[in-house]
Amino acid sequence: MLFSVLTTNLFALYAFTSTPTQTPTPLHSNSHKNMSLISQHVSLILKEIQVSQNKLSKMEKQLLGYDNIDISRPNVANELKFFLQHHTLPLGKDSRSGITEMVASVGHTCEKSMELLSQYMNYKVGGACNDDWSLAQKLILRGCEPLPRRRCFARIVPKVGLLHFPLSLWKPISDKIVSWSGLNCKSFACLGTKKISNDCVGCFDLVNGTEKYRFLRAKSKNDFLVDDVLSLGSGGIRIGFDIDGGSGTFAARMAERNVTVVTSSLNVDAPFNEFIAARGLFPLFMSLDQRFPFYDNVFDLVHAANELGSGGKPEKLEFLMFDIDRILRSGGLFWLDNFHCVDEERKKTLTRLIERFSYKKLKWVVGERIDESRKSQVYLSAVLQKPVRV
């Protein structure tokens, strides 16, 4: 392309500058002027090409997310600068992926929280990490996800008194094996007196609370029993994913039935992840805004509680539903458990969205509950089966 541009411009310049004039001039003088003009134009063309190439390269890097975070700012932690550096592959271009360098994986919206991010990355290399899990969660909730890796040792909390599986599923968890830093409550007894969310009222009391009979006894027509749902699964239910699964009771019920379930959760006002792990279950510390870190069509069952896609624009719920559909295999079940329909429009939006996926409705129940303010609230529960798409 560069050769063509240069050739075309050289011929054009020659045509315009070689027009004969009435007054004859020496041949050597004309040739010198023509060459001078050609050199000037070629120089200008080369400069414009270089500027265009620089602009294209900058646009490409911005699109790829290479330079979203400006590490030249003052007071940026050195560890963050080092982590975000591009690392050239030692053997050059990779023949399979086509990449020539490794780029750090970090959320693009971290740029909006540079002060907090730099604070998170300010530590002694090889030393103990700061007790800053709450800072990490604050960054995640601001969209700074995934967080950069760090070269420090996480604070250790002795896990003394853990029980063997499956006894661990329903035995009380000791306060001593949980980190209470950054939380208002410092014990499970304190948490038992608080309503942390609609899905967690006394959810840390495994002996005397409502968790003991959850998914085994129905309090309303919207509550489905776990054995009834499992019987609907074609090809068997072996592995599942629980979105925003509270204290892990759904995963515990499934574990009793030899089904492995991964539970996503954040530590909002309570140590959910540590509690789930202490029960011998698999916690995943992530927000709903992140793409699920699983391959396509791998889960037999996806369970989502009533906090699914609460608030925000309909497009946000749509993105979430498409990601749920991506990780669920054909014939797999999507269990929507007590989805709170804030208003009639919200229910219609969700219903239209589900119909777009052409799921088979195995169970579909719309019911009402009276909340603390004596107002009637509408909830939708459903078990949907993903179709086989061509």
UniProtKB/TrEMBL annotation:
It is a single-pass membrane protein; Single-pass type II membrane protein. The keyword Transferase applies. Its main location: membrane. GO terms for cellular component: endomembrane system; membrane. Residues 1-17 form the signal peptide. It is found in: Endomembrane system; Membrane. SUPFAM superfamilies: S-adenosyl-L-methionine-dependent methyltransferases. Keywords: Methyltransferase, Signal, Signal-anchor, Transferase, Transmembrane. GO terms for molecular function: methyltransferase activity. One of its GO terms (biological process) is methylation. InterPro entries: Prob_Methyltransferase (IPR053223), Put_SAM_MeTrfase (IPR004159), SAM-dependent_MTases_sf (IPR029063). It comes from the Eukaryota. PANTHER family: OS06G0138600 PROTEIN, S-ADENOSYL-L-METHIONINE-DEPENDENT METHYLTRANSFERASE SUPERFAMILY PROTEIN-RELATED. Belongs to the methyltransferase superfamily. This is S-adenosyl-L-methionine-dependent methyltransferase. It comes from Kingdonia uniflora.
